C-alpha cells in the first residue's frame, strides 16, 4: 500500500508542479534522491498550490530516504615516478616517439584495446581499469608514432606537466601554430584557445587546456611529423572500422577523465550505442545538430522507444571535431557536457558515431543509470 501511495504521489507531484520543472530538459533524473530534492524545493514554496503542499506534508515520510552513495573508484594503482625524457622533448608514461613495441609492453603489458584512428593506424589503449591511461600508435614496424594521455603521466625536459598554466606553456614553447597545411589547403586551427599545437623538431605536440581549471594543461597528444603529413585531409575517410574506433576511443578517454577526477569508470552499453548511432546518423543525413530530432523526440524519448530503462540520463553531442580526442576535450570545456562526463550518479555509457558526406563525424554520448 505504501508503494502505491508513493507512485500516486509522484505522479501527482509531476503533474501539479509542471510549471516549476518544465524548463529542465537535460539531464533527467527520476531516482529517489532526485525526487526528494525536488520535493524539498517545493514543499515550502508559497507559490505552490496549498493542496499540493498539504499532500507533500502528509506523504513526505512515505518516500524512501536516500543514504546510498556513488560507487567508490577501484583501488588506486601506483602512479609511476616521472623523470625527464631521454631523447625527446616530451614523454608519456616514460614512452617516447621512436620507442619499440617491445619496450612499451615490457613496461605496460598488453593493450586493453586496439582501434583504428584518423591517421590510418591504431590507437592501442594501455591502462589498469583506466588508471595510468595512455594511448599509443605504432607504425607497421612497431615503432611508436603517436601518444596521448589525459592523466598525470606527462614528463618533459621543460617545466611542462599536467596542470601547467597555458601562459607557462607558451613561455616554454613559443607561439603555437595558427594553421596546418594538408596538400594544397591550409586549415585554420583553434579559434577558441582550448588547445595549442606546436611543431617541435620532428613532431607535432598538442596541449589541451581545461577552462574550468584556470586554463591549465589537461591532456597531451604527440604525433610524429611524417604521420601527420601523411594524413592528406583534415578529416579521415569515413569507414565502418573508423566509426567503431572513434566510438571506443571516446568511451575510453571519458573513463580515463572520470578516474583522473576520482570517479568510477562507466560500463559500456551496447544497446545505448545503437540508439546513439541512430541519432548521429539522423543528424548527419538530415543536416542538423540538436538534442531534439526532427520528429520532436528528446534523448529520453529515443531511449524509451529503444527499451532502455534508466533512472537518470544525459546526452552529449559533438560535431566536426578532428577526432575523439578533440571531441572529448571540447566537451570537457563546456559546463553542461562536463557535468554529464563527470556525473557521479551515472553508471553506463553508449557512444554512437556517424559521418556526413564530407566525412565529418557526428558524436552522440548517452549517459545513464539503470
UniProtKB/TrEMBL annotation:
CDD domains: CAP_bacterial (cd05379). Transmembrane segments: none annotated. Residues 97-232 form the CAP-associated domain. It comes from the Bacteria. It comes from Alteribacillus iranensis. This is Cysteine-rich secretory protein family protein. Residues 252-358 form the SCP domain. Pfam families: CAP, CAP_assoc_N. Gene3D superfamilies: CAP (3.40.33.10). Residues 63-82 are annotated as: Disordered. InterPro entries: CAP_assoc (IPR029410), CAP_dom (IPR014044), CAP_sf (IPR035940). SUPFAM superfamilies: PR-1-like.
Amino acid at each position: 500500500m505504501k508503494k502505491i501511495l508513493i507512485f500516486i504521489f509522484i505522479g501527482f507531484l509531476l503533474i501539479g508542479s509542471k510549471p516549476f520543472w518544465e524548463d529542465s530538459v537535460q539531464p533527467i533524473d527520476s531516482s529517489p534522491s532526485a525526487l526528494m530534492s525536488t520535493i524539498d524545493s517545493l514543499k515550502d514554496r508559497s507559490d505552490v498550490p496549498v493542496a499540493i503542499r498539504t499532500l507533500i506534508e502528509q506523504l513526505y515520510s512515505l518516500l524512501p530516504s536516500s543514504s546510498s552513495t556513488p560507487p567508490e573508484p577501484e583501488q588506486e594503482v601506483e602512479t609511476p615516478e616521472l623523470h625527464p625524457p631521454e631523447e625527446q622533448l616530451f614523454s608519456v608514461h616514460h614512452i617516447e616517439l621512436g620507442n619499440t613495441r617491445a619496450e612499451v609492453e615490457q613496461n605496460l603489458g598488453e593493450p586493453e584495446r586496439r582501434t583504428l584512428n584518423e591517421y590510418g593506424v591504431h590507437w592501442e589503449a594501455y591502462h589498469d581499469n583506466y588508471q595510468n591511461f595512455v594511448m599509443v600508435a605504432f607504425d607497421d614496424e612497431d615503432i611508436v608514432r603517436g601518444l596521448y594521455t589525459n592523466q598525470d603521466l606527462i614528463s618533459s625536459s621543460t617545466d611542462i606537466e599536467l596542470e601547467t598554466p597555458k601562459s607557462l606553456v607558451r613561455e616554454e614553447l613559443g607561439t603555437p601554430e595558427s594553421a596546418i597545411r594538408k596538400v594544397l589547403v591550409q586549415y585554420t586551427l583553434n579559434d577558441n584557445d582550448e588547445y595549442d599545437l606546436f611543431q617541435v623538431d620532428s613532431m607535432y605536440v598538442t596541449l589541451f587546456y581545461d577552462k574550468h581549471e584556470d586554463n591549465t594543461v589537461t591532456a597531451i597528444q604527440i604525433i610524429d611529423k611524417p604521420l601527420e603529413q601523411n594524413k592528406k585531409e583534415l578529416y579521415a575517410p569515413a569507414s565502418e572500422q573508423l566509426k567503431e574506433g572513434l566510438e571506443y576511443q571516446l568511451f575510453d578517454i571519458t573513463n580515463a577523465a572520470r578516474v583522473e577526477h576520482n570517479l568510477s569508470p562507466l560500463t559500456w552499453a551496447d544497446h545505448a550505442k545503437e540508439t546513439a548511432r541512430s541519432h548521429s546518423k539522423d543528424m548527419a543525413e538530415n543536416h542538423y545538430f540538436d538534442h531534439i530530432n526532427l520528429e520532436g523526440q528528446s534523448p529520453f524519448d529515443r531511449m524509451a522507444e529503444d527499451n532502455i530503462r534508466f533512472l537518470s540520463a544525459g546526452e552529449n553531442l559533438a560535431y566536426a571535431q578532428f577526432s575523439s580526442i578533440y571531441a572529448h576535450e571540447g566537451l570537457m570545456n563546456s559546463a553542461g557536457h562536463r557535468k554529464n562526463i563527470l556525473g557521479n550518479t551515472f553508471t553506463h555509457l553508449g557512444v554512437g558515431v556517424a559521418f556526413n558526406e564530407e566525412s565529418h563525424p557526428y558524436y552522440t554520448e548517452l549517459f545513464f543509470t539503470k
